[in-house]
Amino acid sequence: MPNKTFTCEVEVRWGDSDRLGHVNNTLFLEYTQEARVKFFRDRVFPAGVRPSAMVVRKMEIEFLKPITDASGPVTVEVSILAVGNTSFGIRQVIRDVHGATCGVADAVMVRFDAKTESSVPLTELERSVLSEYSITEAAH
């Protein structure tokens, strides 16, 4: 069975763009965050995983095409690159309303204990659910 990709739409809001109608690159980060929240809410938690603290340890974004007022809603595809002991790699591809790739964001997420301010191991269920969305490293 092929691995899954989670896909969701994110609106390009009126206030996201500058006077030239281009979305500021910092908003790509917000679009990926919104998609990660939807991924956990719609796919991970319904599978029985209990909500826990997760933090972004590292993120890289490749900006491939500007997002404009006319680009939305954008579609964000969420896949898992790797699952480790306390962290996992996540890839998010942002596409405009016509399907053109506007950006690719790769991040490392860490399961986190707010009381001790340290990483904690992912549960077996978290690893299992995340692995369902695992992809092999490929050129984008």
UniProtKB/TrEMBL annotation:
Domain of life the protein comes from: Bacteria
InterPro entries in alphabetical order: 4-hydroxybenzoyl-CoA_TE, HotDog_dom_sf
Keyword Transport: no
EC number: 3.1.2.-
Keyword Disulfide bond: no
SUPFAM superfamilies: Thioesterase/thiol ester dehydrase-isomerase (SSF54637)
Short name of one Pfam family: 4HBT_2
Uppermost EC category: hydrolase
A GO MF term: hydrolase activity
Sorted UniProt keywords: Hydrolase
Protein's UniProt name: Acyl-CoA thioesterase
Organism: Rhodococcus daqingensis
